[in-house]
């Protein structure tokens, strides 16, 4: 409607008056603002319940009990070849199957300390006994594991690889 009024002022038959655009905006803005306030007020109870829920739960305990317990049960039942971080998940590769566990590599290193292995990259942990071959190409190093996968070694972890080859 404002656009139509704007173009009507250029016709030669109408007298030249001030553009009603700003008056139209102020006329429409008041009901829109009132509707927005009513919507927020109607959702206040739901928002408060959600805030209470977030404040009352302990994120660290829930994470430790669920995810690390799952990884502990996997370690007890299977021989782990490697653990690789993928976004918010850890891919736990065993001799017979793969598992996807929610967690971070830093949280899992305490659980993996009971196994004989090492973190060779910020995203990879391997079991010592499953390393079959060390491949060096240029400045990079990769480990060939018993399941046929190649895992990159970080430059800062090359010292561990040199001890393994001796």
Describe the structure.
This protein folds into two domains: about 35 residues, no CATH class; about 110 residues, LytTr DNA-binding domain (OB fold (Dihydrolipoamide Acetyltransferase, E2P)). The chain has six helices and eight strands, in the order ααααβββαβββββα. Helices cover about 45% and strands about 25% of the residues. It has about 170 residues and is of the alpha+beta class. Strands 3-2-1-5-4 form a five-stranded antiparallel β-sheet, sandwiched between helices. Strands 6-7-8 form a three-stranded antiparallel β-sheet, with helices on one face. Helix 4 crosses helix 5. About 5% of the residues have low confidence.
Task: Briefly characterize the structure.
The chain is α+β, with helices and mostly antiparallel strands and 166 residues long. The chain has helices at residues 2-8, 21-42, 44-56, 59-77, 105-112, 158-165; strands at 80-86, 89-94, 98-102, 117-121, 124-127, 131-137, 140-145, 150-153.
Descriptive key words:
single chain, 166 residues, alpha+beta, OB fold (Dihydrolipoamide Acetyltransferase, E2P), five-stranded antiparallel β-sheet, three-stranded antiparallel β-sheet, elongated
Please give the structural blueprint:
Blueprint: H1 2-8, H2 21-42, H3 44-56, H4 59-77, E1 80-86, E2 89-94, E3 98-102, H5 105-112, E4 117-121, E5 124-127, E6 131-137, E7 140-145, E8 150-153, H6 158-165
Antiparallel strand pairs: 1-2, 1-5, 2-3, 4-5, 6-7, 7-8
Helix pairs in contact: 4-5
